[in-house]
Every structure is written in C-alpha cells, then in structure tokens.
Give the backbone structure.
Amino acid sequence: MAKRLFDDLGVCYQEIHVDQQPDVRQEMVTLSGRRTVPQIFIADRHVGGFDDAQDALRNGDLKQWLKGININV
C-alpha cells in the first residue's frame, strides 16, 4: 500500500528488501526505532510506516517534505 501511495503521487522511490539482509534490517531498526516494514524515509527524514505516511499526506506534511527535496506533487 505504501508503494501505491507514492505511485499515485508520481514519486519515484527505492525499495529495499530487508527480509533477506539482516545487516540492512538492523540499520533500518537503528535509524527508525521500529522493526516493522515498510519504514519510509524521505532523504534523511524517517516518515514512519504506511499509516504515518498516509497521515502526513492528509495533513500536508508529506508534500512539504517532498518539496524540500525538490519533488513536486
């Protein structure tokens, strides 16, 4: 669902599969403080999971964060 949110916005993203990469998963946990996936990052900003991204879209934060890295939606 998170991918669809960004697809619908026309935003390119990089998907990193952490399920088979324990070191990358640990880095995600260290950066986010969370073990669940997906965890969404915009540049160095940790957005959270899908629900957090959806909430940020509703309140306008997501578009502001994307504009901050020169992505217009």
Remarks:
- The chain has a mean pLDDT of 95.
- The chain has one domain: 2-11+18-68.
- The first helix runs from residue 2 to 9.
- The chain has four helices and two strands.
